[in-house]
TrEMBL record:
It comes from the Bacteria. Residues 1-23 form the signal peptide. Keywords: Signal. This is Lipoprotein. The lineage of its organism: Bacteria, Pseudomonadati, Bacteroidota, Flavobacteriia, Flavobacteriales. It comes from Flavobacterium rivulicola.
Amino acid sequence: MKKTVLMLITTMLLTACSSDSNPNDGLPPETQTGANTFGCLIDGKLLVPRSGNNSVVFPLWGAILWGGIPNIEDYRELEIRDYKSPKSATLLLHMKKVDSIGVGNYNIDESNGMSNIDGLDQNYLHCTIFDEKTNSFQQYVSFDNSGVLKIKYLKLNGLIISGTFNCRVRNIQNFDDIIEITKGRFDIKASTIMQTYFP
């Protein structure tokens, strides 16, 4: 009897951890080493960076970390693209003053759907996803107090920035259409991210 119960529990645990039943499979672990990883679930669907090529002349980066304009320390923007899925998503995370403020929690506020100097002067996030209902790509933007960005590790010498985020975003054309971005995590090293190929 004990063997039967033990086998049943083991089978249940193995089934619960299988990739068929776990939508979180494919998310990278949360690290703080500059591993150049990113992952999140947008409306339950996995987004990870996937490079289009590794060309030196015209690279199609899966992930890139931009510095502020005109001052690099004003903000950082992490841009994620999946070049291998025709109906996938892109995401941009704008992080204001992280170089000077450092580790801590940041509110994610309103996005106007733009980036760098055309974006708003605060922390924000926006993404583009393929909507099966409309058979078209739709842009979703964060709004005031719609999420939290947690910077968990920041090393300025060589710039490693690691953290997590969760956020609600709304369709830029229909504010009643709100979806969630969950289990976001990243671990980026600025000096090597542009040379990293994401398969």
